[in-house]
Design a protein that fits this description.
binds NADPH dihydro-nicotinamide-adenine-dinucleotide phosphate, globular, alpha/beta, six-stranded mixed beta sheet, Rossmann fold, six-stranded parallel beta sheet
Length: about 280
Amino acid sequence: MSDQYAVIGNPIAHTKSPLIHGLFAEATRQQMSYVAIEGPLDPDDGFERIVRGFAADGGKGMNVTAPFKLRAFALADERSERAKLAGAANALKFENGRIVAENFDGIGLTRDIEVNLGVPLTGKRVLMLGAGGAARGALLPFLAAGPADLVVANRDVSKGEALVAQVGPHDAGLHACGYGDLAAMGRFDVVVNATSASLTGELPPVPPSVFSPYGTAYELAYGKRLTPFLRLARNAGVLGVADGVGMLVEQAAEAFAWWRGVRPETSAVIDRLTVPLD
Ligand code: NDP
């Protein structure tokens, strides 16, 4: 029997992960299957039972999506540093009876911006909107890229401050603020919308003055064409606007490499999944 993998979430019908991993497996000639599992929303241990059952039946790994990333992190026996900072796992590996947790969302986002879009973060002024799971996962990979500034703006300022405090005082250019502080901070080279506002067609209260015309505006949500955030950036004259489809494929490639020891090529898969913004 081929090695088995799955993605678990709820809802899960929309997931692109089986398609992405199927294309990766075909391209790298890996014998594996990858299915979608709808996880239970009840607060009992149904989620944990499904994950442990999948592993006991010979499963090798799982991707985890909303709303189970925190629970997946909690049930793991081992956790990577970036999973620890995010407090969340988006990938699990089952080996020698143990569950290992990883979080590739941040590295996927960083690779998409730096490699696919060709925008190095080194020395740049970077603004991250949001301090939820995706923003938390992005913090260490962003800092590793060496930006001049990394500002985390969140509605609930204390959440952003707690996140920054967790990383420690050594990163001088890292700080948290509220949206009301942004107007006085000048322009940023890269503005990342890591809030979930776009999922409901909302716009985080970000002033247009943060955008730089030669900069980049990145929306983590994908497949939603020009979201209010991307529209605001366009109207502010930003030339480089992108959504999160590349991040989705890049985080999948990281998980695939972690599980299978071979990193698949991503550009054809990104092209296939891209919904044009206009
Ligand atoms: P969380 O629920 O963990 O965090 C939500 C964040 O959004 C919080 O910071 C919250 O602020 C903020 N927020 C929600 N609504 C608004 C609003 N109307 N205005 C301003 N801020 C708002 O979500 P995730 O971090 O898991 O996901 C964030 C986004 O990233 C989603 O769109 C998700 O689809 C996307 N994503 C994309 C991935 C990809 O591969 N492309 C992977 C993972 C996520 P507060 O704390 O103040 O409530």
